[in-house]
Design brief:
15 strands; 23 helices; 51% helix; alpha/beta; five-stranded parallel β-sheet; 14% strand; globular; five-stranded antiparallel β-sheet
């Protein structure tokens, strides 16, 4: 195993928002609180320690014990749940949808990043405890986003009717998915483990939330991971004051809208708030709450509430009020003693919209940390990269750029016309000076001729490059095939592949290698050679 790190910006896959954040540019600073460095964590701990109540800790611990009742809890996870009662214990949280069989590879990277950060902070702040948390997005209702995973270039899909919070979905019908998956796995020891994990997860648990908890727990319980399901009556009670504030004052809409008006001057906006950022949750539905003509309406239903009725409903039935993407982060920070959220670029981008809202409702805004990203390169692929003289950073070039660069480097003739174009520019600069001294109207003719000749040279360069690519077809084919293998669909593999492909080949060695390789606070992209 060999680990190499390269700057995120050199991959070409990360947004301006993220790159500016990592470089702590002035334009992004107003939209976050503490930066993820040791000073930032020291300040964040102090802030959270003052605001998070002991009563909230006790409610959280009881809720977690309830959620884990029918699960095999490791000693380390049990210990971490108990530690949450103590005022010097804080959480490091990541969240993810309930994707079938964990979905894309980065599910693992998120959780291992959280585990490793908790361990690193425990060394840096020995008088404090840090617990890694996986927040299951059980209340999401985007079933199309979670009902499949990719395995060896094919989709393994679960077909069933959509409706309501995905965590409550019955696991009925997943026997058929297991059969399809089993047929593709073979009979190796690692294949048998994957079959057992899928089978026990989905066929021995009644709903998607429990199935996902089982799988994540089996994979990470020895590292003390604590899994939280926010679709919980006791936890929702802690959030009642914020739900009422939202219904009466539309606070999130007002504050986030103000932030967006400043953020959009330099950055792309990830999500836009609704007037009320809450859903009403039924057994098979999750619909928006809309305030219209003095009445609270549940979208696509006949259900309505007056103001007093809906506030009473919040008190009596808090479980039915489900925060959307704008309010879910607040819910998380209210119920957890959390100091840091680890997420992907898209997630962190929408958190930047929320800082003012958190300040308005007096909840500390957590440190935001871009999760580790990993590119796995096999020994065989690394040998090919070396043979083709492709560096790790060049691997991430757009395919056209990569092929052009390598064809030019490998060519016996001069294909790059850069120097010739520069020489031509210099000649025309001299001509323009002469034109100015003779007849000013002549300058326009010189400019037109310059444009025409440079364009002509560029076209010749393109034609020569095309001809060289045909002549070097073997090289072009080898590079294309290798890059497509490593970056499926010209995208990061972590968004495309499922962990099972690597587990099938490497078994637990794969998870162990990630555990060693991922360094959350180094803020760089990881190349893992296996």
């Amino acid at each position: 195993m060999k680990v190499t790190q390269i700057p995120f910006k050199n991959t070409g896959f990360f947004s301006k928002t993220m790159l500016d954040y990592l470089e702590q540019k002035d334009t992004i600073k107003p939209f976050y609180n503490n930066f993820p460095d040791i000073t930032g964590f020291h300040n964040q701990i102090e802030e959270k320690e003052k605001s998070y109540r002991l009563q909230s800790r006790l409610v959280l611990v009881e809720a977690l014990k309830n959620q884990y009742k029918s699960f095999n809890v490791s000693e380390k996870t049990s210990e971490n749940i108990e530690l949450l009662k103590q005022q010097n214990t804080f959480t490091i949280t990541t969240g993810h949808q309930l994707n079938l069989f964990t979905g894309p590879l980065y599910f693992l990277y998120k959780i291992i990043s959280a585990i490793n950060l908790a361990e690193e902070l425990s060394l840096k702040f020995p008088e404090k405890n840090f617990v890694p948390i996986y927040w299951m997005a059980t209340e999401d209702h985007d079933f199309d986003e979670v009902n499949y995973f990719n395995f060896q270039g094919k989709k393994v899909r679960w077909n069933r009717e959509d409706g309501g919070a995905v965590g409550r979905f019955s696991t009925e019908g997943l026997q058929d998915v297991l059969e399809v998956f089993t047929n593709q796995l073979g009979n190796s020891k690692n294949a048998e483990h994957l079959k057992e994990l899928f089978s026990k997860g989905y066929l021995e648990h009644n709903n998607l939330a429990d199935a996902t908890r089982y799988i994540a727990n089996e994979m990470f319980k020895e590292h003390g991971l604590v899994i939280v399901d926010g679709d919980d009556k006791e936890l929702k009670k802690l959030f009642i004051p914020f739900v009422k504030d939202e219904l009466e004052n539309e606070t999130s809409f007002n504050e986030v809208s103000k932030t967006i008006s400043n953020l959009e001057k330099n950055y792309k906006i990830q999500v836009n708030p609704r007037e009320i950022n809450l859903f009403y949750l039924g057994d098979n539905s999750r619909e928006r709450i809309i305030f219209e003509d003095g009445v609270y309406k549940i979208n696509y239903t006949e259900t309505t509430f007056s103001k007093s009725e809906i506030l009473k409903e919040v008190d009596e039935n808090s479980l039915t009020f489900s925060p959307n993407v704008i309010m879910r982060p607040l819910y998380q920070e209210v119920i957890l003693p959390n100091i840091c959220y680890l997420g992907g670029g898209g997630e962190i981008a929408y958190w930047f919209e929320l800082k003012n809202y958190f300040e308005k409702v007096n909840v500390p805004f957590p440190i935001l940390l871009l999760r580790n990203s990993v590119q796995v390169v096999s020994e065989k692929q690394q040998r090919k990269l070396h043979k083709l003289h492709i560096s790790h950073e060049e691997l991430f070039l757009n395919q056209h750029q990569l092929l052009s660069k390598k064809v030019v480097e490998n060519s016996e003739i001069e294909v790059d016309f850069k120097e010739k174009i520069e020489y031509l520019n210099k000649q025309f600069l001299d001509l323009k000076e002469i034109a100015k001294k003779t007849d000013v109207s002549f300058v326009g003719a010189v400019n037109a001729q310059e444009k025409k000749q440079i364009k002509g040279l560029q076209n010749l360069e393109k034609r020569l490059l095309r001809a060289e690519k045909i002549r070097q077809k073997d090289l072009v084919d080898r590079i294309t095939e290798l890059q497509n293998q490593i970056l499926p669909n010209q995208s990061l593999e972590e968004r495309q592949r499922n962990f099972s492909e690597y587990y099938l080949e490497y078994g637990t060695l794969f998870i162990n290698a990630l555990k060693i390789a991922l360094k959350p606070l180094e803020l760089e992209f990881t190349i893992l050679e296996l």
